[in-house]
Amino acid sequence: MSAADGAPMMSDGKRLLRARDLCALIAAGDGRGSVTDIRQFCKDWAASDDSRRLKMIADVPGRLRWWHRFGARRFDLVRIAAVVDALCDRDDVTVPPWVSSFRSRRAVTLSQPRFPSGPWNDYIRSVAPAACARRNVWFRPVDLEDYRVHGFA
Q1: Of 135, 3, 134, 106, nearest to 56 (Cα)?
Q2: Tally of structural domains, the chain
Q3: Other CB atoms closer than 10 Å to residue 130's CB: what's the count?
Q4: pTM listed for this prediction
């Protein structure tokens, strides 16, 4: 498996899941939902040092297919950008320039295409990382640190 065939890059005997790999993984789906691949990216991020993190976010993600501009896949890129932005802010890593190219016109979450007003969603907005407002993709900080991803549950 190599980066040339579109698979996640292998480095030092360990997988290096890159932001650019996420669209293909999300689109392929494994039955567990689109957030699973994003959470795996967060898990790999947490287990990486700064130089490895920079490799993970160096390349801009792209849509797997042109028709992913429509339907459920149309928010994948902005979700990835929001997560990268939030992780970089949290861990004091330089945000890559490609992140600023992505912002949703309407409010969305990591898993839902709409984010209507309501008590719970207002709470999420109040605790969300600053990156959420910049990308208009909303989630709680704990969503980047889900213990189930890290193997404790």
Answers
A1: 3
A2: 1
A3: 11
A4: 0.83
pLDDT along the chain (153 residues), means of 10: 47 72 82 78 90 95 75 86 96 96 91 84 93 95 69 42
Query: Residue written as tokens 């992913």?
Result: 68
Please state, as a whole number, how many other Cβ atoms lie within 10 Å of the Cβ of residue 16.
16
Does the residue 153 lie in any domain? Answer: no
Cα-Cα-Cα-Cα dihedral sign, residues 147, 55, 25, 133: positive
Residue type, 142: V
Which residue from 31, 21, 42 is spatially nearest to 85, judged by alpha carbons? 42
CA 49-54-55 angle, 5° bins:
100
Give the end-to-end CA distance of the chain in Å, rounded to a whole number: 30
Kindly state whether residue 74 falls inside one of the protein's structural domains: yes
Q: Is residue 104 part of a domain?
A: yes
| Residue 80 in tokens | 């990835």
The reply to whether 151 falls in a domain is no
Which residues partner with 11 through β-bridges?
14
Tokens standing for 6? Answer: 């579109």
Q: Which domain holds residue 38?
A: 3-144
Give the separation between CA 1 and CA 66, rounded to whole angstroms. Answer: 25
Strand pairing report for 137-138 and 108-109: parallel
